[in-house]
Specification:
The complex is a heterodimer of chains A (96) and B (542). By secondary structure, chain A is mainly α. Chain A has one domain (10-93). Chain A contains three helices and no strands. Chain A has helices at 13-35, 41-61, 69-93. The longest helix of chain A has 25 residues, at 69-93. Chain A is flat and about 50 Å long. Chain B has one domain: Cytochrome C Oxidase, Chain A, CATH 1.20.210.10. Chain B is built from 15 helices and no strands. Classes of the chains: A mainly alpha (96), B mainly alpha (542). Chains A and B meet through helix 3 of A and helix 8 and helix 10 of B.
Chain lengths: 96, 542
């Protein structure tokens, strides 16, 4: 079993704190954006910030950054599928 | 790989022998993929027979205008339950659960799947989901009457027992995700030495593509069904425009899963056909790589076409255009498969035994189903036939004429392997003829009725549709007679059939190289693969 267990990677407190701060800043940005009149771009702005936030959580807190390439590809495949599903749904919602 | 050594049923009972546990526990707590495969078989097939009876009852109701044997509410419940059972309890778990379990590990040279206990858990979750759905029919305020699609706003408002039924389907979805995960891992990690990606049988390729669809698409169904429950129990207003919700969002979410689900039903069926055709044509398959890749292409492109179920829903025109185009794209890999099968037949030494007849039936009926699908996928024509009997006919051509016939074909093809006995060939031929004729009489009439304008999901119709409805009902009786003969023949073969050797058809895939029935560990010694799955000469088969 030990041969397939990935090595533990210890992330420094500084890095974790910086990520946390970045997440807080992005949350503030989310709230600020929601008050701006961006029209059609409102959803895109909210989704972009949300993607960035979840990306940070996955990469640093969930340590995906230090995983092997196969796992990264699997995650990418799942997320890309989700993005395509959401994108195609918007072809309807945005142009109805 | 000693094909010449004939091991008969009298010498060895293989995995049927007692495994240490006794009675029913040796089955329901077994982690052997073959036993789990049979658990799935007996359960899904029992549900199939129940849903067949419901179908026959619906056809009897429709044999004459007006009330014949039931009223509208019973009819609504009947078509809902028929659909839910056939889709969620039979054909969705059917191929992966039964033939994926029985054959895939053997065909890649493995002793079992990657996670045998998870495999057993999948079956248990499936059975729990099935029991929940069955309970929903007899409890609360009557069986669901929404159709198998559970469309809002009706499913959120109807007083019938939708909540429990939907929860049962949620559980079935969970079981499918676990099976998909297990199969993807198995195919990646447990292939025997020499079993390269270019040598895995095409059935395994199709199981692999299907498993990915199960893993990626089923969670969306789970979430969607939970949203219905949130709507009904908590009054969430997610799909209620009066409260900022969007009823079309339900249709998007439902079909994002349910259209790929059609490929969960048909892809493994195509895999079965790709196994049968070369063996009964005595020729290597034409275009192995193209068939394998087209499975993946169907799985990928088939996940992007869900909007063609919504052309008349009020969706945006741009979306109609995009989804119509994408639907046409899926026809390409499907056609690649059909052309490759037909090319394999070309100049082959064809022997028309039962599995081959079902495979040929599949090609014709699936082609009709596929081409009528283009009429529905094209937005302009879809508007005319949407929600008519044409859709019912088309769908049954694909799923019954396609997947159903492939399922029967697979039953006949692998029957001797697992039971060590043979059924009667002539009786199988008689059953096939009745099934084929009955099927076409029943469902072609429906397609004509649809073009003439008869809507679906009504227990009554205008008098001018009488003749074709009567014809369709007669067809259902012929079809049923064929099914009874087929089952009697298989059952008789099981008990009294002539014992067979390990490789009665002369197949070159690994399952034919091991004793009949397969031993518990599948292989007496670790297999080393030195040739492709359809290289008959390389494996010493005349």
């Amino acid at each position: 079993m030990s041969s397939i267990t990935p090595e533990q990677h210890v992330v420094s407190y500084g890095k974790l704190a910086a990520t946390w701060l970045a997440l807080m800043a992005l949350t503030v940005l989310t709230i600020w954006v929601s008050f701006q009149d961006l029209g059609i771009f409102r959803v895109w702005a909210a989704l972009s910030i949300a993607s960035l936030k979840s990306g940070l959580v996955i990469a640093i807190f969930m340590q995906m950054k230090y995983e092997n390439r196969l796992l990264k590809w699997l995650l990418f495949l799942a997320l890309a599928t989700l993005a395509i599903f959401i994108g195609l749904t918007f072809v309807d919602v945005l142009y109805r | 790989m000693t094909n010449s050594e004939a091991t008969t049923v009298q010498d060895e009972r293989g995995f049927w022998k007692d495994t240490g546990k006794t009675g029913i526990t040796s089955w329901i707590f077994s982690t052997d993929h073959k036993r789990i495969g049979f658990l799935y078989f007996y359960t899904v097939f029992s549900f199939f027979l129940v849903a067949v009876i419901l179908g026959i009852l619906m056809r009897i109701e429709l044999m004459a205008p007006g009330r014949t044997i039931m009223g509208p509410q019973t009819y609504n419940a009947l078509f809902t339950v028929h659909g839910v059972i056939m889709i969620f309890l039979f054909i969705l778990p059917g191929f992966q659960g039964v033939f994926g379990n029985l054959l895939m590990p053997i065909q890649i040279g493995a002793r079992d799947v990657a996670f045998p206990r998870l495999n057993l858990l999948s079956w248990w979750i499936y059975i729990t989901g099935a029991a929940t759905i069955i309970t929903s029919l007899f409890t609360g305020s009557g069986p669901p009457d929404t159709g198998w699609t559970f469309y809002v706003p009706f499913s959120a408002r109807t007083g019938t027992n939708v909540t429990l039924a939907v929860f049962g389907v949620f559980l079935i979805g969970m079981s499918a995700i676990l099976t998909g995960l297990n199969f993807v891992t198995t195919i990646h990690r447990l292939r025997a030495e020499g079993m390269t990606w270019g040598r895995i049988p095409l059935f395994v390729w199709s199981v692999y593509a299907t498993a990915w669809v199960q893993v990626l698409a089923t969670p969306i169904l789970g979430i969607t069904l939970l949203l219905i429950i949130a709507e009904r129990v908590l009054g969430a207003g997610l799909f209620d425009p009066g409260r900022g919700g969007d009823p079309l969002m339900y249709q998007h979410l439902f079909w994002i899963y349910s259209h790929p689900a059609v490929y969960i039903m048909i892809l493994p069926a195509m895999g079965v056909i790709s196994e049968i055709i070369p063996v009964f044509s005595r020729k290597p398959i034409f275009g192995y790589g193209m068939i394998a890749m087209s499975s993946l292409a169907i799985a990928a492109a088939g996940s992007l076409v869900w909007g063609h179920h919504m052309f008349t829903s009020g969706m945006s025109d741009l979306a109609v255009l995009v989804f119509s185009f994408l639907t046409f794209v899926v026809a390409i890999p499907s056609a690649i498969k059909v052309f490759n099968w037909v090319s394999t037949l070309y100049k082959g030494s064809i022997s028309l035994e039962a599995p081959m007849l079902f495979a040929l039936g599949f090609i014709l009926l699936f082609s009709i189903g596929g081409l009528t699908g283009l009429i529905l996928g094209s937005a302009a024509t879809d508007i005319h036939v949407h929600d008519t009997q044409f859709v019912v006919g088309h769908f049954h051509y694909v799923i019954f004429g396609g997947s159903g016939f492939a399922f029967f074909g697979a039953m006949h093809y692998w029957f001797p392997k697992f039971f060590g006995r043979r059924y009667r060939e002539k009786l199988a031929l008689a059953a096939w003829i009745l099934l084929f004729i009955g099927f076409n009489v029943m469902y072609f009439s429906m397609m004509v009725l649809g073009v003439e304008g008869m809507p679906r999901r009504y227990y009554d119709y205008l008098p001018e549709f009488h003749a074709l409805n009567l014809t369709s009902t007669f067809g259902s009786w012929i079809l049923f007679a064929g099914m009874v003969i087929m089952l009697v023949n298989l059952f008789h073969g099981l008990l009294r059939g002539e014992p067979v050797e390990r490789n009665p058809w002369g197949g070159a895939t690994l399952e034919w190289s091991i004793p009949t029935p397969p031993p518990t560990d599948n292989f007496v010694e670790e297999p080393v693969v030195t040739h492709g799955p359809y290289d008959f000469k390389g494996s010493g088969i005349p």
